Each structure stands twice: as C-alpha cells, then as structure tokens.
TrEMBL record:
Its EC number is 3.2.1.-. It catalyses: N(4)-(alpha-D-Man-(1->2)-alpha-D-Man-(1->2)-alpha-D-Man-(1->3)-[alpha-D-Man-(1->2)-alpha-D-Man-(1->3)-[alpha-D-Man-(1->2)-alpha-D-Man-(1->6)]-alpha-D-Man-(1->6)]-beta-D-Man-(1->4)-beta-D-GlcNAc-(1->4)-beta-D-GlcNAc)-L-asparaginyl-[protein] (N-glucan mannose isomer 9A1,2,3B1,2,3) + 4 H2O = N(4)-(alpha-D-Man-(1->3)-[alpha-D-Man-(1->3)-[alpha-D-Man-(1->6)]-alpha-D-Man-(1->6)]-beta-D-Man-(1->4)-beta-D-GlcNAc-(1->4)-beta-D-GlcNAc)-L-asparaginyl-[protein] (N-glucan mannose isomer 5A1,2) + 4 beta-D-mannose; N(4)-(alpha-D-Man-(1->2)-alpha-D-Man-(1->2)-alpha-D-Man-(1->3)-[alpha-D-Man-(1->3)-[alpha-D-Man-(1->2)-alpha-D-Man-(1->6)]-alpha-D-Man-(1->6)]-beta-D-Man-(1->4)-beta-D-GlcNAc-(1->4)-beta-D-GlcNAc)-L-asparaginyl-[protein] (N-glucan mannose isomer 8A1,2,3B1,3) + 3 H2O = N(4)-(alpha-D-Man-(1->3)-[alpha-D-Man-(1->3)-[alpha-D-Man-(1->6)]-alpha-D-Man-(1->6)]-beta-D-Man-(1->4)-beta-D-GlcNAc-(1->4)-beta-D-GlcNAc)-L-asparaginyl-[protein] (N-glucan mannose isomer 5A1,2) + 3 beta-D-mannose. One of its GO terms (biological process) is carbohydrate metabolic process. It is a single-pass type II membrane protein. Keywords: Calcium, Disulfide bond, Glycosidase, Hydrolase, Membrane, Metal-binding, Signal-anchor, Transmembrane. It comes from Menura novaehollandiae. One of its GO terms (molecular function) is calcium ion binding. InterPro entries: 6hp_glycosidase-like_sf (IPR012341), Glyco_hydro_47 (IPR001382), Glycosyl_Hydrolase_47 (IPR050749), Seven-hairpin_glycosidases (IPR036026). It is found in: Endomembrane system. It is an enzyme of class 3 (hydrolase). The lineage of its organism: Eukaryota, Metazoa, Chordata, Craniata, Vertebrata. This is alpha-1,2-Mannosidase. Ca(2+) binds at residue 436. Signal peptide: none annotated.
Length: 456
C-alpha cells in the first residue's frame, strides 16, 4: 500500500511541480519553502532513496537525471543549514550508498563544502542561516538573544562524518567534533541541554529544554553517532545515556490516566505538553535499549513502548485518527490538543517512525495494526486528487486541507510505513542508521577505514 501511496505522491509532484521544492496538491502547483532559499528540487532529493528502496526504477532514473542536469547550489540565497543538511546532504548521501552512482557523492560533497562557512563563528557553533553565495551567516531573529538552536547544530554529525569519509577531507568531521567539545565543556542545568546556545559567547541562552522541536534530533544523533561508528564513539554513547538519565528524572511523567509523556522544561518549571515531533523518542529509547547499562535494557524498551502508546492515544482521540501537532496533559485533558494552533497534522512521520522501531525490536503485532490505522486515516483524509495534503484541524468532521505535500512525507512517512510492513532484512539496523530525515547511512565498520585508504 505504501508503494501505491508513494506512486500517487510522486506522480502528482512530477505532473504539477517537477523541479520545484514541494507540491501544492489542491492548487496543483509548486510550493517553495524559504528554508531552502533558491535551491530547488527538495522533493526529488528527499525521495531518491525511497524510490530506490521501493524499486521504482523508472522514477529513480528520472530523478537521477534531474539531479545531474538541474541540481544547482550556486544560488544567491539564504538557506537553513539544518534543513538543507538533513534533506539534501542526507538524501544525496543515501542515494549514493544505495545506488553507487558517483553523481550523488559528487553533489553531496559539493553541497557540504558550501555549508562550511556556517561554522565561521567565535566558538565554531554554526549559524542557523547561511547565504551560500556570500558565505554570510546569522541566526533566527526570534531565537534567545541571537542563539543557535540545539536541534539544528546538533543534527549535522552523521552527515558530516560521512562527508569526510567519502571526500577524504577531515574538515567536515572536525567541525562536528568541535561542537561536541563545546558542549562537553559547558555546565548543564540538572544535566539537561538547553535549546539555545550563543555561538559568539559559547554560553546557553534561555534555559528551555525540549525533546520535541528545538531539541529533538540532537539526542537522536548522539545515540546514532555511537551506533554509526560501530560502537566505537564512546563519547557519543556517554553523552546519550547521561542525557536520557536527566530526561527521565526531570521530564518524563505519568498522567493520572496512566499515560507516560515527556514534558517541556522552562527554567525549572514543567509545561505538560508533548509535541508530535517528540513522538520519535519512543523509537530512540528502544533503539538505544541494547547499549544501555545491563540492568536497564528492558526498561528502555518499556519506555519506548509507553511513548508509542501515548502517541497512539493522541491519534486515537481525534476525529480523523491522525495526531495533532502538540497535545497536553493538564486540566483534566490527556493526549489532546487544547489550542487551535496545535490541532493541525502536516503529514509528519514521527509516530509511524516509532511504530517501525518498536515493531523491529519487539515484533509485537499491535505496532503493525497501529500503522495500518494511520494508513487508513491518511488515505481517507489526506489523499486528494493531486497528491497528499496536511490538515488544519484533526478534531473536525470536515477536512480543511493546508495544501502542502511536504517533502518529508515521501522521505520519511512513506518509507517508515514501507519498512514497518517489510521484512527485517531490508535495511537491517546492524548495517544502517537512519538520519533524522529517514535517509539510511551505512555503519562505518572499523575495517572500512583501511579499505577506503587502499582504494584512494
């Protein structure tokens, strides 16, 4: 089914928005997000590996030809370093590792080089925004006193280690290792990592902590850096398990109705709200269970299962059986969005991602059942003639579509669904680690280093 869904999403993108970043499936035209500046083709690059994995060979070939002829980084535009890294660099790296086509390696390294000026700050903590022609960077004006954001500078590690691996240029790995150094030097309030860090002073901004937006993938990449290093990156491992310990102590709570959730921390006060983005953490805890201190493995799997259940409830308690952007646990409500501006669903993957990890690590059939419920809801409420659209209010009887088919729907949501219903030997976890945009990157086995050197 996810194959037919992919075909519907891709064919319509091709028909109405080919070469543009994303598709507006209702107006049947292109959608350009300012996150990518003037770089074009986000959906193509994000979907390459999904097309390959689903054996959509014709489509993959067309996409590859577009990349060869049209993917251009010489544009005078300001981009989000984080978004361009996880979607474009990640997408190109995966396409290369899966297909072996040299063009993808070449483009990935070329783009990586264009991102390097973002690290030209007093601390080496990169800017959030970069003009890739002038090399001038800055931060989001709303971010605490000119700070960089934990989830943004903390979600470059996997891709940049691979850029060094594939280019033979150590600078990429050095840049992300330096970020670690800066973080290790700093005092963490209660062992937690605030979402804001000033790239000039090297000091934390506001003491806000979140495992959802602004924080989320930083934690994911600590664990995955260790896994991707063939479990040699002891520093990444220690940082991850220490962080989880602090998260458990300070952020994880149980509602009166028995649902485990991860709250947000604001200068010592808890906000009892959990974002859809935070739902990825169920899969993360389960994936990290194996490396946890020996008596804790079962506990981490259990934690993953509890988060999966809470996030399933957030879907189940809506009219459309699709989860809201954020849901609360206060004033008698549980796992329900109480604010209008949190009731939307933009085709996000995190809940299905957690189902996929839980299925692979436990084989409990309920995860496939829950995934199937999501498929039915997507088909019923998000599928339109011209593709798939997000929804403005999942508690409503009538769909009000937002008219955007996000590139991550093809990259993540549909890929995780496909993997949930595939055999475990498709992209097995011992050989592949998924970046935060679901782009699979190979584990770098110790003997790879020597192989690479001999080939050069």
């Amino acid at each position: 089914v996810s194959l037919q869904m992919m075909k519907h999403a891709w064919d319509n993108y091709k028909r109405y928005a080919w070469g543009l970043n994303e598709l507006k499936p209702i107006s049947k035209q292109g959608h350009s997000s300012n996150l990518f500046g003037n770089i074009q083709g986000a959906t193509i690059v994000d979907a390459l590996d999904t097309l390959y994995i689903m054996e959509m060979k014709e489509e993959f070939k067309e996409a590859k030809e577009w990349v060869e002829k049209n993917l251009d980084f010489n544009v005078n535009a300001e981009i989000s370093v984080f978004e361009v890294n996880i979607r474009f660099v990640g997408g190109l790296l995966s396409a290369y590792y899966l297909s072996g086509e040299e063009i993808f390696r070449k483009k990935a390294v070329e783009l990586g080089e264009k991102l390097l000026p973002a690290f030209n700050t007093p601390t080496g903590i990169p800017w959030a925004l970069l003009n890739i022609k002038s090399g001038i960077g800055r931060n989001w004006p709303w971010a605490s006193g000119g700070s960089s954001i934990l989830a943004e500078f903390g979600t470059l590690h996997l891709e940049f280690v691979h850029l060094s691996h594939l280019s033979g240029n150590p600078v990429f790995a050095e840049k992300v290792m330096n970020i670690r150094k800066v973080l290790n030097r700093l005092d963490k309030p209660e062992g937690l990592y605030p979402n804001y860090l000033n790239p000039s002073s090297g000091q934390w901004g506001q003491h806000h902590v979140s495992i959802g937006g602004l924080g989320d993938s930083f934690y994911e990449y600590l664990l995955k850096a260790w896994l991707m290093s063939d479990k040699t990156d002891e520093d990444g491992k220690k940082m991850y398990y220490d962080a989880v310990q602090a998260i458990e102590t300070h952020l994880i709570r149980k509602s009166s109705g028995g649902l485990t959730y991860i709250a947000e921390w604001k200068g010592g006060l808890l906000e009892h709200k959990m974002g859809h983005l935070t739902c990825f953490a169920g899969g993360m805890f389960a994936l990290g269970a194996d490396g946890a201190p020996s008596d804790k493995t079962g506990h981490h799997i259990e934690l993953g299962a509890e988060i999966a259940r809470t996030c399933h409830e957030s879907y189940d308690r809506t009219r459309m059986k699709l989860g809201p952007e954020a849901f609360r646990f206060d004033g008698g409500v549980e796992a329900i969005a109480t604010r209008q501006n949190e009731k939307y669903y933009i085709l996000r993957p995190e809940v299905i991602e957690t189902y996929m990890y839980m299925w692979r690590l436990t084989h409990d059939p309920k995860y496939r059942q829950w995934g199937w419920e999501a498929v039915e809801a997507l088909e019923k409420h998000c599928r339109v003639d011209g593709g798939y659209s997000g929804i403005r209010d999942v508690y409503n009887n009538h769909e009000s579509h937002d008219d955007v088919q996000q590139s991550f729907f093809l990259s993540e949501t549909l890929k995780y669904l496909y993997l949930l219903f595939s055999e475990d030997d498709l992209l097995p976890f011992e050989h592949w680690v998924f970046n935060t945009e679901a782009h699979p990157l190979p584990v770098l086995h110790k003997d790879d280093e020597n192989k690479e050197k001999n080939q050069k």
